[in-house]
C-alpha cells in the first residue's frame, strides 16, 4: 500500500486512506517514489512546529515534491509564528503568500 511510511509521523491508517482517495494514482506513485524527500520535509515541518502532518499532505501535497532547500527558502518569507499558525490552522492561506 502507498504511503505506509507516513505512520511513522502519526498519520493514521484512515488518514492515509483519505489521502489515497483524494489524489490520483500517478501522483501517489510519485509521492511514494520520493519517500526520502517527503520524510526530510516532514522532519523539517515537525521541527518547525507543525502538529498535523496529515493536514499538510492532504491540502498542500505539492510542498512534498519540492526540494527541502526550496521549502526552507519559501518558509523564510513569513514570520515563523505566523507560518506555524497557518500550517496548523489555515494551510490554504499559504497560497496568499506565494507558498
Question: Helices and strands in order, then pairings?
Answer:
Layout: H1 13-22, H2 25-33, H3 35-48, H4 53-59, H5 68-75, H6 80-89
Question: Could you list some keywords that capture this structure?
Answer:
single chain, 99 residues, mainly alpha, 6 helices, 0% strand
Number of alpha- plus pi-helical segments: 6
Approximate helicity band: 55-70%
Share in β-strands: under 5%
Strand count: 0
The H/E string reads: HHHHHH
Radius of gyration: 13 Å
Principal-axes shape call: globular
Distance between the termini: 30 Å
In terms of structural class, how would the helical and strand content be classed? Answer: mainly alpha
Question: Which blocks of ≥5 consecutive residues have pLDDT under 50?
Answer: none
Domain module count: 1
Mind describing the biggest β-sheet? none
Mean pLDDT: 91
Walk me through the structure.
With 99 residues, this protein is mainly α. It has one domain (4-97). Helices cover 59% and strands 0% of the residues. It contains six helices and no strands. It has helices at residues 13-22, 25-33, 35-48, 53-59, 68-75, 80-89. The longest helix has 14 residues, at 35-48. The N and C termini lie far apart (30 Å). The mean pLDDT is 91.
In short:
With 99 residues, this protein is mainly α. The protein has six helices and no strands. The chain has one domain.
